[in-house]
Structures are given as C-alpha cells and as structure tokens.
Amino acid sequence: MHNLLSRANSLLAFTLWVMAAVTAACFLSTVFLDYTVSNHLEVNDIKIRNVRDYATDDKQADLATLAFNLKVDFSRLFNWNVKQLFVYLVAEYKSAENAVNQVVIWDRIVERSERVVMDEIGVKTKYYFLDDGAHLLKHDNVTFVLRYNVIPNAGYLRLVQSTNQLVVPFPTTYTTTRRS
Amino acid sequence: MDGMVAMLPTPLQNWSTHLDFEGQRFAERIYKITLTISGVVGFVVGVWTQQLSYALYIVMAGALITALVILPPWPFLRQNPVEVSHNVLEDFFEKFGGYRIVKWHTPAKPEPMVSSQPAAENKVADKKAADKKKADKKKKEAKKSK
C-alpha cells in the first residue's frame, strides 16, 4: 500500500471479491425457486411414411410428420438469474427394437424479454421424426413431453420437465402421397 | 512499474504517491468498508430490479469512488509522517542505493530475567568456590610437602 500501484492492486482484488460474492448471492437467492410450468399441447395431422433410411443402414424405416399447437406461459420463470430458456419437444415411445425411444422434434430459445408467452398454432417440426425401424405405425401411445433448460447467469444448467404430457395414438396406415 | 513511470511526462515522474503507515492502514480500512457497503447495496438493488447487471454496476461505481478517495496521496492520509534519523551512512544509501532504512517502531528492550531461586544458585556457587579453595589448599600442601 506504499505506492499508487500497490493500492490500486489491493483495491482491484477486493472489488473482484465483492463482485464474486454478489454473484454468488444472486445464485443462492434463485436456486431454490420452482421452475415448472404447465403447457397446452395438441398434435394434429400425423402422417407416417415408410422410407429408405440412407443415413444408418439400408432398411426401411418409419418417418412421421406432424404439426402441433403449443401454448405455454414462461413469464413466471424469468428472474435476475435467468438468461434464457432452451425449450424442446420430445416424442417418447417404446418399440420392439428399443425399450425407450426419445426423438426431439422441435426446439426454440426463449430469451429474457417481453415475448415469453408462446401461443402458436400449426408449428411444423424442425427435425425428422425417424424411427429406428418400422414401429411407429399403429403405435398406441407416443408421448409428447415438453422440457426446457433454464440457462442462468450464475449457477448450473437446470433441466425441467413441464407438468403435462400428451399421449397420442399413431395412425394405422401409411401415407403414400408426397405432400407432407 | 519503473517502466510505466518513465513513460509519464517529466514533472509527474518525481511525484511521490507514498503514504505513511497510519495512512496505509486507514486507506485499507476505507476500501474494505466502502466496497462491502457497495456490495450490499448492489445486491439489494439487484433483487429489487431483478437485474444482475445493475448490482454489478453499483459495485463498480463504489470501486471508482473508493479509488478517488484512496489512490491519490491526499494530505489526510499523510498525517503521521515516518520519522527518519539522519545518519551519514543512511543518507549515502538513500542517495546511491535508492532506498532508505527507516526506524519506525523500536521494540522495547526485553527486561533481564530475574532468577526465581537466588539462594539455591548462590549455594551452588559458594559450594563450588569452597571446593575450589579446598583443591587449591591441597595442591599447596602437596607442593609444600615436596
């Protein structure tokens, strides 16, 4: 502390300590909150086609296309420790090939802003819903689950599942037209 | 640091930013208190506005204000100047070596330990002296007999 640089050094080090403490306090003040929301999901217009799966092996596989309506209100999740949410929709089902199949068919980043209420109709899937085999046809219960990562400013990456799921029986015949 | 000082314009290079020891202690106390307060105030503002950026801006503003208070060598931080004794050898060191040996606080000399059992010790000493006398006497007698 005997000259200016030494004092500036001590001051800067203590300032960084205080900033770390404030950030830790921010984390502690938000870590035990409840981050679940409910959603309203409808899935319509499901079409299954039997296609050649070139990416893996040359067997025939089921490819499903669908559109969905999703209504979620994320506004109660955002606090000073939430930067954004990464929301995704998963189709989960059991098949003869695998005990658990989970296919992510859509995702979106919801940033902390005014537009955090989602109310959309006719949303198309972003990713292919391709089965590992040909087991989607006539499937009784494909479950659609909405999950989201709460991305913080300080802390760990939290994964939350929305409170309701949608169970959908899949069509019993293939679609042969080209239009999706 | 010396390289940075050499880059300043010449009148600034000789400007001393030293504080005396009491001033240093006071400056450290000032920054600890003000930065802690700015941290607490920043946290409260952050919870109130739900913006982490506001909390950290307040801490940084507190640090800037504290820098204005403690970085320059203000007179109120130099009120207990260090006592320097002028000794030819020390003056020589300061001139050519660039530093000065400073006596700031002379520790009190420890008092000499007083023995708790003076009588016993003297007894032993007396006994030794007596033994020595006897030995000397014997030697003398031996010499005489020869």
From TrEMBL, chain A:
Among the GO biological process terms of this entry, one is:
signal peptide processing
Membrane topology is: Single-pass type II membrane protein
Q: What is its main location?
A: endoplasmic reticulum
**Keyword field:** Endoplasmic reticulum, Membrane, Signal-anchor, Transmembrane, Transmembrane helix
Can you say where in the cell this protein is located? Endoplasmic reticulum membrane
Superkingdom = Eukaryota
Residues annotated as coiled-coil are: none
User: GO CC terms for this protein?
Assistant: signal peptidase complex
Q: Which PANTHER family match?
A: MICROSOMAL SIGNAL PEPTIDASE 23 KD SUBUNIT SPC22/23, SIGNAL PEPTIDASE COMPLEX SUBUNIT 3
Q: Which family does this protein fall into?
A: Belongs to the SPCS3 family.
Q: Per its database record, what is this protein's job?
A: Essential component of the signal peptidase complex (SPC) which catalyzes the cleavage of N-terminal signal sequences from nascent proteins as they are translocated into the lumen of the endoplasmic reticulum. Essential for the SPC catalytic activity, possibly by stabilizing and positioning the active center of the complex close to the lumenal surface.
What is the protein's given name? Signal peptidase complex subunit 3
The source organism is Caenorhabditis nigoni
What would be the name of the gene that encodes this protein?
Answer: Cni-K12H4.4
Automatic annotation (TrEMBL), chain B:
Please list every transmembrane segment annotated in the UniProt record, as residue ranges. Answer: 30-48, 54-71
Provide the alphabetized UniProt keywords.
Endoplasmic reticulum, Membrane, Transmembrane, Transmembrane helix
What's the superkingdom here?
Eukaryota
Which regions are flagged for Basic and acidic residues bias?
Answer: 123-134
Q: Where is the composition biased (Basic residues)?
A: 135-146
Localization in the cell: Endoplasmic reticulum membrane
Annotated region (Disordered), positions in chain: 109-146
A cellular-component GO term for this protein: signal peptidase complex
The protein's topology relative to the membrane is:
Multi-pass membrane protein
Gene Ontology annotations of biological process type: protein targeting to ER; signal peptide processing
Q: What is its main location?
A: endoplasmic reticulum
Similarity comment: Belongs to the SPCS1 family.
Q: What does this protein do?
A: Component of the signal peptidase complex (SPC) which catalyzes the cleavage of N-terminal signal sequences from nascent proteins as they are translocated into the lumen of the endoplasmic reticulum. Dispensable for SPC enzymatic activity.
Please give the name of this protein: Signal peptidase complex subunit 1
| Organism of origin | Caenorhabditis nigoni
Q: Which gene encodes it?
A: Cni-C34B2.10
